[in-house]
């Protein structure tokens, strides 16, 4: 039975990785931007956590989720400014170096800043204040990014099966890395369990796969820019999901190891994931309407 959470997280993580690549390379690069921080692993982490208090784990996740959106945006901006950041490096090597720098920043934040932020997120009102502040800043940045003129991507579009066939090795590596991260989360304290459950493996692994392969790969740069236009707003949904789902699990008032608690937890997880999907779809529809009405 202990193997089941690992299998679920690994399979879901691989599916989310493929879905992000498919959206970015098919019709919805902006959907891929919001899905980079989709709370898939976060939700399963809360559902299968051995801790009796999911709210504590959620409090540890929230600042890391916000940081993930910021780091993804910084990575994309660095790659879209080839002459400003590490101009002497080839695009693929530059992507690896930038991701490595972002992961160093993530680790430093998790060690030095996240405990301080987590200590401030004691009540729901404080979490709502944090969420509102991030939503305001992220919304403004998203609006500015969307305001920039972008030439629509016109390259070939792959089917989902085609994306899977082209990324079989990447999926295998993703599964191995997911298992490693899950082991670290499983054997850590409550706070570190929450932080490792928000480790940006899927976002950065996806962004590495989407990075331009050479300096004149304009089509990939256009798609990456469209992914970046919504990446800062994805954590708003993820933070709201994590906090709401943690309180839902607490309200069940059932022993975590019982089948009924697990079944109700899965039901709540699926419902909240569906709500997130509908909200993403609605936001993207609103963006398309505004673009059609624009000059």
Report, as a whole number of angstroms, the end-to-end distance: 57 Å
Please state the structural category: mainly alpha
Query: Beta-strand percentage?
Result: under 5%
Shape: globular
SSE arrangement, N to C:
HHHHHHHHHHHHH
- Poorly predicted runs: none
Keywords:
globular, 78% helix, 0% strand, 295 residues, mainly alpha, 13 helices
List the helices and strands and how they pair.
Blueprint: H1 3-25, H2 29-35, H3 40-48, H4 54-80, H5 91-120, H6 124-147, H7 160-166, H8 168-186, H9 190-197, H10 201-210, H11 218-228, H12 234-252, H13 259-293
Helix pairs in contact: 1-2, 1-3, 1-8, 1-10, 2-11, 3-12, 3-13, 4-5, 4-9, 4-11, 4-12, 6-12, 8-9, 8-10, 12-13
Question: How would you describe this protein?
Answer:
The protein is mainly alpha-helical. Helices cover 78% and strands 0% of the residues. The chain has one domain. It has 13 helices and no strands. Helix 4 packs antiparallel against helix 11 (218-228) and helix 4 (54-80) runs antiparallel to helix 12 (234-252). The chain starts with a helix and ends with a helix.
């Amino acid at each position: 039975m202990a193997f089941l959470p690992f299998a679920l997280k690994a399979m879901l993580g691989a599916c989310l990785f493929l879905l992000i690549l498919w959206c970015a390379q098919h019709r919805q690069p902006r959907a891929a931007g919001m899905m980079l921080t989709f709370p898939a692993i976060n939700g399963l982490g809360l559902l299968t956590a051995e801790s009796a208090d999911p709210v504590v784990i959620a409090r540890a996740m929230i600042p890391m989720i916000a940081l993930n959106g910021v780091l993804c945006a910084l990575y994309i901006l660095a790659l879209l400014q080839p002459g400003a950041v590490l101009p002497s490096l080839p695009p693929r090597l530059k992507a690896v170096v930038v991701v490595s720098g972002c992961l160093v920043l993530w680790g430093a934040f998790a060690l030095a800043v996240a405990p301080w932020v987590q200590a401030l997120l004691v009540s729901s009102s404080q979490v709502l204040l944090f969420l509102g502040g991030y939503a305001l800043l992220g919304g403004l940045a998203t609006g500015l990014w969307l305001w920039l003129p972008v030439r629509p991507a016109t390259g070939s579009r792959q089917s989902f099966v085609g994306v899977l066939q082209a990324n079989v090795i990447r999926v295998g590596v993703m599964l191995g890395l997911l298992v490693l991260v899950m082991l670290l989360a499983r054997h850590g304290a409550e706070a570190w369990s929450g932080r490792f459950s928000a480790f940006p493996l899927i976002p950065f692994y996806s962004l590495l796969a989407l990075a331009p392969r050479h300096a004149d790969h304009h089509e990939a740069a256009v798609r990456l820019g469209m992914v970046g236009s919504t990446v800062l707003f994805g954590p708003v949904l993820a933070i709201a999901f994590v906090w709401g789902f943690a309180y839902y699990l607490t309200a069940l008032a059932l022993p975590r190891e019982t089948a009924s608690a697990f079944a109700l937890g899965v039901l709540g997880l699926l419902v909240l994931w569906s709500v997130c999907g509908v909200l993403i779809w609605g936001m993207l529809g609103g963006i398309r309407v505004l673009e059609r009405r624009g000059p």
